[in-house]
Write a structure and sequence with these properties.
Metallo-beta-lactamase, Chain A, 7 helices, six-stranded mixed beta sheet, binds zinc ion
């Protein structure tokens, strides 16, 4: 397994690359800014970029998409349909050329990406179209689950009620996995079940 991570942009969004050397392909999650650094990460991996996947539509997770497409114009970009449009603000997903590259995914979708299987959980709360992505024992948690915390729910379309439903779903998944959030350090699902006050509260609802 090939795993790489860089922090991009002024608020340090985690951008991840996942792939398999044997398959020769990879995908990138949440290229929020600094597309040239993301492209460098892809180049260094030696793998062919297959797709860009977005955990949600906020600009700090999507801002580098256009710059990557400039070099990889054929690469599809996946986002949940609820975060596609920009009602009343510039905080949502927007980039030139969305028409040809744009794909939507949602609850229960399974994509063959990076030499593995990517499973999509729709986890609204931080935004209406937030998703958590499972790939092998890796959870890309976006701004839903953080180490010791969870994403804020006071932005447009956010909902604390939905967040707790989403957190409960994550806590109820079987077994353990490595959790890589959209901001801050990595953790494990079991660690969060034991110590994360938001997840613990959600599990009691
Ligand atoms: Zn966000």
């Amino acid at each position: 397994m090939v795993f790489r991570q860089i922090q991009v942009g002024p608020i340090g969004t985690n951008c991840y690359l996942l792939g398999e050397e044997s398959a020769g392909v990879c995908f990138v999650a949440d290229p929020g800014d600094e597309p040239e650094r993301v492209l460098g990460m892809v180049r260094e991996s030696g793998l062919a970029l297959q797709a860009i996947v977005l955990t949600h539509g906020h600009y700090d997770h999507t801002g580098g998409v256009a710059g990557i497409l400039a070099e990889h114009p054929q690469v599809p970009v996946y986002i949940h349909r609820n975060d596609l449009y920009a009602p009343g603000g510039s905080q949502r997903y927007q980039y030139a050329g969305a028409g040809t590259n744009q794909r939507t995914y949602g609850e229960g979708d399974v994509l063959s990406l990076g030499g593995g299987t990517l499973r999509v959980l729709h986890t609204p709360g931080h935004s209406p179209g937030s998703v958590v992505l499972l790939w092998g024992d890796v959870m890309l948690a976006g701004d839903t689950l953080f180490a010791g915390s969870c994403g804020r729910c006071d932005l447009f379309g956010g909902s604390m009620e939905e967040m707790f439903v989403s957190l409960k779903r994550l806590g109820s998944l079987s077994g353990d996995c490595r959790v890589f959030p959209g901001h801050g350090p990595a953790t494990t699902l079991e660690t969060e079940r034991r110590t994360n006050p938001y997840l613990r509260h959600a599990m009691q609802l």
